[in-house]
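Worked problem 6 (solution included).
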Amino acid sequence: MLILNRPEDTQYFAHPPCNNLVITMTQSNHSLELKELEDKLDQLIEQYANVKNENNSLKTKQDSLVREKAKLLEKTTLARTRVEAMITRLKAMENGS
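Solution. The predicted structure is:
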């Protein structure tokens, strides 16, 4: 790009025909590259949101499963205690007869 100075201290820009085409093509390429970067960034943001939602969902499910496991362990312990008590009573009945 050429800058022409006039005696009135006013600057005018002159673009030779060839340079004007190069500038336009360069701006077009930059615009296209910028648009591609914006699209990729949008995709990354969307993927991040999806992964974050999935992670939260998995954490909730894990918490639920941990609580369920604790309840099952408690039931198993209670059942074991009852079975052991029944065995003890049966042995006592056997020895008493």
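Discussion: Residues 2-96 form one domain.
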